[in-house]
Write a structure and sequence with these properties.
The chain is an alpha/beta fold and about 240 residues long. The chain has a single domain, classed as Zn-dependent exopeptidases (Aminopeptidase, 3-Layer(aba) Sandwich). About 35% of the residues lie in helices and about 15% in strands. The protein is built from seven helices and six strands, in the order βαβαββαβαβααα. Strands 2-1-3-6-4-5 form a six-stranded mixed β-sheet. Helix 3 links the parallel strand 4 and strand 5. Helix 1 packs across helix 6 and helix 3 packs antiparallel against helix 6. The longest helix is centred in the middle third of the chain and has 18 residues.
Length: about 240
Protein backbone atom coordinates (compact mmCIF):
# COMPACT_ATOMS: atom_id res chain seq x y z
CA UNK A 1 0.00 0.00 0.00
CA UNK A 2 1.17 3.55 -0.76
CA UNK A 3 0.26 6.58 1.36
CA UNK A 4 0.92 10.22 0.50
CA UNK A 5 1.20 12.44 3.58
CA UNK A 6 0.59 16.13 2.91
CA UNK A 7 1.58 18.81 5.40
CA UNK A 8 -0.62 21.64 4.19
CA UNK A 9 0.91 24.88 2.87
CA UNK A 10 4.56 25.86 3.52
CA UNK A 11 6.76 28.15 5.58
CA UNK A 12 6.20 31.05 3.18
CA UNK A 13 2.47 30.66 2.50
CA UNK A 14 0.91 34.14 2.99
CA UNK A 15 -1.60 34.48 5.82
CA UNK A 16 -1.23 30.95 7.16
CA UNK A 17 -0.18 31.76 10.71
CA UNK A 18 -1.70 32.32 14.13
CA UNK A 19 -2.26 35.83 15.56
CA UNK A 20 0.82 35.33 17.76
CA UNK A 21 3.03 34.23 14.88
CA UNK A 22 3.05 30.43 14.70
CA UNK A 23 3.12 29.35 11.07
CA UNK A 24 0.52 26.71 10.31
CA UNK A 25 3.12 24.70 8.39
CA UNK A 26 5.15 24.27 11.58
CA UNK A 27 2.31 22.26 13.07
CA UNK A 28 1.41 20.46 9.84
CA UNK A 29 4.91 19.22 9.05
CA UNK A 30 5.52 18.08 12.62
CA UNK A 31 2.40 15.90 12.66
CA UNK A 32 3.29 14.61 9.18
CA UNK A 33 6.74 13.54 10.39
CA UNK A 34 5.32 11.75 13.41
CA UNK A 35 2.69 10.06 11.26
CA UNK A 36 5.32 8.80 8.83
CA UNK A 37 7.41 7.44 11.70
CA UNK A 38 4.42 5.58 13.14
CA UNK A 39 3.63 3.97 9.79
CA UNK A 40 7.25 2.97 9.16
CA UNK A 41 6.76 -0.27 11.10
CA UNK A 42 3.91 -1.37 8.83
CA UNK A 43 3.80 -2.83 5.35
CA UNK A 44 3.24 0.49 3.57
CA UNK A 45 5.29 2.92 1.52
CA UNK A 46 4.90 6.55 2.60
CA UNK A 47 5.63 9.71 0.62
CA UNK A 48 5.58 13.42 1.45
CA UNK A 49 3.71 15.86 -0.78
CA UNK A 50 5.34 18.89 0.87
CA UNK A 51 8.84 20.32 1.16
CA UNK A 52 10.61 22.43 3.76
CA UNK A 53 12.51 24.25 1.01
CA UNK A 54 9.66 25.51 -1.17
CA UNK A 55 5.90 25.90 -0.88
CA UNK A 56 4.88 23.07 -3.21
CA UNK A 57 1.89 24.11 -5.39
CA UNK A 58 -1.31 22.13 -4.89
CA UNK A 59 -1.33 20.93 -8.50
CA UNK A 60 2.18 19.56 -8.12
CA UNK A 61 1.21 17.73 -4.95
CA UNK A 62 -1.78 16.00 -6.46
CA UNK A 63 0.02 15.29 -9.74
CA UNK A 64 2.75 13.49 -7.82
CA UNK A 65 0.23 11.48 -5.82
CA UNK A 66 -1.54 10.45 -9.01
CA UNK A 67 1.68 9.56 -10.84
CA UNK A 68 2.83 7.41 -7.93
CA UNK A 69 -0.57 5.67 -7.89
CA UNK A 70 -0.86 6.03 -4.13
CA UNK A 71 -3.82 4.43 -2.39
CA UNK A 72 -4.43 7.13 0.21
CA UNK A 73 -3.84 10.89 0.44
CA UNK A 74 -3.89 12.45 3.92
CA UNK A 75 -3.68 16.24 4.19
CA UNK A 76 -2.88 17.67 7.63
CA UNK A 77 -3.88 21.19 8.68
CA UNK A 78 -4.57 23.56 11.56
CA UNK A 79 -7.79 25.55 11.22
CA UNK A 80 -8.36 29.31 11.37
CA UNK A 81 -11.32 31.66 11.70
CA UNK A 82 -12.08 33.87 8.70
CA UNK A 83 -10.84 37.14 10.19
CA UNK A 84 -7.49 35.60 11.28
CA UNK A 85 -7.68 37.33 14.66
CA UNK A 86 -8.40 35.59 17.95
CA UNK A 87 -11.76 33.86 17.72
CA UNK A 88 -13.97 31.54 19.76
CA UNK A 89 -14.25 28.94 16.97
CA UNK A 90 -12.84 25.67 18.24
CA UNK A 91 -12.59 21.95 17.67
CA UNK A 92 -11.57 19.37 15.10
CA UNK A 93 -13.14 18.52 11.75
CA UNK A 94 -12.28 16.17 8.90
CA UNK A 95 -13.11 16.72 5.23
CA UNK A 96 -13.86 14.52 2.25
CA UNK A 97 -14.86 15.53 -1.28
CA UNK A 98 -18.39 16.78 -1.97
CA UNK A 99 -19.09 13.68 -4.07
CA UNK A 100 -19.15 11.74 -0.80
CA UNK A 101 -16.93 8.76 -1.66
CA UNK A 102 -17.82 5.89 0.68
CA UNK A 103 -14.26 4.76 1.34
CA UNK A 104 -13.16 8.28 2.24
CA UNK A 105 -16.24 8.81 4.42
CA UNK A 106 -15.58 5.61 6.34
CA UNK A 107 -11.92 6.47 6.96
CA UNK A 108 -12.67 10.13 7.76
CA UNK A 109 -15.23 9.06 10.35
CA UNK A 110 -12.69 6.81 12.04
CA UNK A 111 -10.06 9.54 12.05
CA UNK A 112 -12.50 12.15 13.37
CA UNK A 113 -13.77 9.93 16.18
CA UNK A 114 -10.27 8.86 17.17
CA UNK A 115 -9.00 12.44 17.24
CA UNK A 116 -11.86 13.54 19.48
CA UNK A 117 -11.39 10.56 21.81
CA UNK A 118 -7.64 11.22 21.97
CA UNK A 119 -7.63 15.01 22.35
CA UNK A 120 -10.95 15.73 24.04
CA UNK A 121 -11.58 18.73 21.77
CA UNK A 122 -14.97 19.70 20.36
CA UNK A 123 -16.28 17.42 17.63
CA UNK A 124 -17.12 19.49 14.55
CA UNK A 125 -17.79 16.33 12.55
CA UNK A 126 -16.97 15.02 9.09
CA UNK A 127 -17.70 17.59 6.38
CA UNK A 128 -17.49 17.85 2.61
CA UNK A 129 -15.63 20.41 0.52
CA UNK A 130 -14.27 20.85 -2.99
CA UNK A 131 -10.69 21.42 -1.84
CA UNK A 132 -8.12 20.78 -4.56
CA UNK A 133 -6.42 17.91 -2.73
CA UNK A 134 -9.80 16.20 -2.44
CA UNK A 135 -11.03 16.83 -5.98
CA UNK A 136 -7.85 16.39 -8.04
CA UNK A 137 -6.64 13.18 -6.42
CA UNK A 138 -7.55 9.85 -7.97
CA UNK A 139 -7.45 7.93 -4.73
CA UNK A 140 -9.10 8.00 -1.32
CA UNK A 141 -8.35 11.44 0.15
CA UNK A 142 -9.08 13.09 3.49
CA UNK A 143 -8.16 16.47 4.94
CA UNK A 144 -7.89 16.88 8.70
CA UNK A 145 -8.20 20.19 10.59
CA UNK A 146 -6.63 19.46 13.99
CA UNK A 147 -7.75 22.53 15.92
CA UNK A 148 -7.96 26.31 15.55
CA UNK A 149 -4.76 28.35 15.60
CA UNK A 150 -7.02 31.42 16.03
CA UNK A 151 -8.33 30.06 19.33
CA UNK A 152 -6.24 31.19 22.31
CA UNK A 153 -6.61 27.85 24.11
CA UNK A 154 -6.08 25.60 21.11
CA UNK A 155 -3.03 27.47 19.81
CA UNK A 156 -1.22 26.37 22.98
CA UNK A 157 -2.02 22.77 22.09
CA UNK A 158 -1.01 23.21 18.47
CA UNK A 159 2.40 24.46 19.62
CA UNK A 160 2.80 21.48 21.94
CA UNK A 161 4.89 18.55 20.77
CA UNK A 162 2.80 16.29 22.99
CA UNK A 163 -0.41 17.34 21.22
CA UNK A 164 1.18 16.94 17.79
CA UNK A 165 2.16 13.39 18.66
CA UNK A 166 -1.39 12.73 19.87
CA UNK A 167 -2.82 13.86 16.55
CA UNK A 168 -0.37 11.74 14.58
CA UNK A 169 -1.10 8.72 16.77
CA UNK A 170 -4.87 9.08 16.30
CA UNK A 171 -4.54 9.39 12.52
CA UNK A 172 -2.09 6.48 12.32
CA UNK A 173 -4.24 4.17 14.43
CA UNK A 174 -7.27 4.97 12.28
CA UNK A 175 -5.41 4.18 9.06
CA UNK A 176 -3.92 0.98 10.48
CA UNK A 177 -7.33 -0.19 11.65
CA UNK A 178 -9.20 0.82 8.50
CA UNK A 179 -6.83 -0.95 6.13
CA UNK A 180 -5.90 -3.80 8.51
CA UNK A 181 -2.24 -2.98 8.01
CA UNK A 182 0.25 -5.64 9.00
CA UNK A 183 3.53 -4.97 10.73
CA UNK A 184 6.71 -5.52 8.78
CA UNK A 185 8.38 -8.84 9.41
CA UNK A 186 11.64 -8.45 11.25
CA UNK A 187 14.65 -9.96 9.51
CA UNK A 188 15.68 -13.10 11.39
CA UNK A 189 19.26 -13.04 12.58
CA UNK A 190 21.49 -14.94 10.22
CA UNK A 191 22.56 -18.17 11.83
CA UNK A 192 26.26 -18.82 11.76
CA UNK A 193 27.55 -22.06 10.32
CA UNK A 194 27.85 -24.74 12.99
CA UNK A 195 31.38 -25.19 14.26
CA UNK A 196 33.22 -28.17 12.90
CA UNK A 197 34.27 -30.47 15.71
CA UNK A 198 37.17 -32.88 15.37
CA UNK A 199 37.28 -35.85 17.70
CA UNK A 200 40.67 -37.48 18.32
CA UNK A 201 41.46 -40.95 19.65
CA UNK A 202 44.80 -41.58 21.32
CA UNK A 203 46.15 -45.08 21.33
CA UNK A 204 49.18 -45.49 23.55
CA UNK A 205 51.77 -43.18 25.09
CA UNK A 206 55.42 -44.13 25.22
CA UNK A 207 58.59 -42.76 26.72
CA UNK A 208 60.55 -44.61 24.05
CA UNK A 209 60.23 -43.04 20.59
CA UNK A 210 60.84 -46.34 18.81
CA UNK A 211 57.91 -47.99 20.54
CA UNK A 212 55.68 -45.14 19.33
CA UNK A 213 57.01 -45.53 15.79
CA UNK A 214 56.37 -49.29 15.83
CA UNK A 215 52.73 -48.80 16.88
CA UNK A 216 52.25 -46.10 14.25
CA UNK A 217 53.54 -48.47 11.58
CA UNK A 218 51.11 -51.20 12.65
CA UNK A 219 48.16 -48.79 12.60
CA UNK A 220 49.05 -47.50 9.14
CA UNK A 221 49.06 -51.08 7.86
CA UNK A 222 45.53 -51.44 9.24
CA UNK A 223 44.44 -48.30 7.33
CA UNK A 224 44.38 -45.74 10.13
CA UNK A 225 45.73 -42.23 9.71
CA UNK A 226 48.48 -41.93 12.27
CA UNK A 227 50.31 -38.98 13.78
CA UNK A 228 53.01 -39.04 16.41
CA UNK A 229 52.77 -36.07 18.80
CA UNK A 230 55.63 -35.21 21.13
CA UNK A 231 54.81 -33.76 24.56
CA UNK A 232 57.50 -32.56 26.89
CA UNK A 233 57.12 -34.02 30.36
CA UNK A 234 57.74 -31.79 33.37
CA UNK A 235 60.16 -33.18 35.93
Amino acid sequence: MKIMIDAGHGYKTPGKSSPDGMKEYEFNRSVAEYLKDLLTNYQVNTFFAHSDIVDVPLQERTNRANSLHVDLYVSIHANAAVNRGWHKAEGIETYIHTSGPKEALSLATKIQNKLIATTGLQNRGVKTADFHVLSATKMTAVLVECGFMTNEKEIKLLKSDHYRKKCAQAIAESIISHYSLKKKLSNPAKQSDPEKILYKVQLGAFSDKQNAANLATQLKRLGFETTIITDKQEC
